[in-house]
Amino acid sequence: MKTLPYWLAVLALLLLPFSASAQQQGLEIDIVGGNASALPIAIVPMPYQGSAAAPQTDVGSVVRSDLERSGAFRALPEASMVERPTRGGEVQYPTWRALKQDYLVVGRVVDAGAGSYRVEYELFDVAKQERLLGLALTARSNAMRDVAHQMADAIYEKILGVRGAFWTRIAYITQTGLGKDARYALMVADSDGFNPQTVVRSAEPLLSPSWSPDGNRLAYVSFERGNSSIYIQNISTGARELVSSFRGINGAPTFSPDGRKLALTLSRSGNPEIYVMDLGSKQLTQLTNQFGIDTEPTWSADGSSIYFTSDRGGRPQIYRVGAGGGSASRVTFQGNYNATATVSYDGKKIAVAQGSGNNYRIAMMDSSLGSPRWSTLSPGSLDESPSFAPNASMILYAAREGRRGVLYAVSADARVRQRLVLAEGDVREPAWSPYRTPR
How far apart are the first and last CA of the chain? Predict the structure, then answer.
């Protein structure tokens, strides 16, 4: 089935067919493509050196996987490591220079008491023979993957000068069964697809998950009341709030950067328009009033404006309007179909689902060097729902492979794609979370 704009999908409930699956299983990772200019780095295995039971997580392996899938690094295979130091004093720099490695990570896992573990690790610049990082992180066994992601974030930032986004999460929608047996779920998982958790289950369609800026809540669309309605779900407590159930369309919610407002699409006046709701008072401000369909709002990083999809010019394109209202201006001009915008944290990049004929691919408009430059990021024919990582280094999107829905994460330079597949199942409508804050 042809991919449809969000508003048509809501109006007609033209949800793509899903195959039965066991959604308890996690997401598989398959790296597609590569980057010849990636930085060589060796992440030496980090053995457990304690006396209690060893943690189940292989910390070094998780760090290696994180850095590789970013597209910025090329990790040395373990089989090529002729030495395996665990601390700086054991490092022989000539060995790693001979292996043509730019950077080296060594470490070990030790007991921290009370059932916890401490990971001690160091990052070295091989050419300069200089230690760049020397840190220790402590956690219980069930949080060791979190530790590994935070390590990868620190290494990424120290070398590249950009905050890493590995210790983040993704939200997505799944469906199991067909017809009357269809069941839907709003899921949350780590950014690499591990630790999937069900946030909401429903016998009716779920759509459009959107993260709050603190990462504690998800806004989404549910049809459990018969008509589309917007809920906000607290991930930690399970509490949820119905925030919009007007007659007609209630769709495409997205939190403002300060978390106090929600941009959404309503057709309460008879035509789909962009509104902003103050979540404290539930007061609505209508931003658009135009013949045609206005939908899929997304905020600029500073909260001053809202980007949205509109067919007011005859075909779907991205427009921008002030967060307080006013006249809207068109943003995209290349291609006859641009929809579902996601905006980078600095506002210089906008990724969209770009259509041409029956093909829909993820494209990006980059204005960081002045005049907008377009690039195509995905090779599929039914790609949709792009979502930037909080550091804008990668973009998550949904694709179709036969009757199955899958997720991909593609680097912003399109050199590396990572495929995430729900085992034996189907997944779509991804949303990448904001940064997490250590507790």
Answer: 45
Run of H or E including 133: strand 130-140
Which residue is listed with tokens 């929809």? 339
Check residue 312 and give its pLDDT: 93
Q: Are strands 240-244 and 329-330 parallel, antiparallel or unpaired?
A: unpaired
Question: Could you tell me the CA-to-CA distances from 24 to 187, 197, 401, 424 in Å, in that order?
Answer: 10, 8, 21, 10
Length of the chain equals 439
- Asked if 232 and 219 count as a contact pair (C-beta separation under 8 A), the reply is yes
Tell whether the model's pLDDT for residue 115 goes beyond 90: no
User: What's the pLDDT at 421?
Assistant: 63
pLDDT digits (tens, 9 = 90+) for 366-390: 998 889 999 999 998 899 999 999 9
Dump the DSSP string for 309-372.
Answer: EE-TTSS-EEEEEETT----EE---SSS-EEEEEE-TTSSEEEEEEEETTEEEEEEEE-TTSS-
Residue 346 token pair: 């600095």
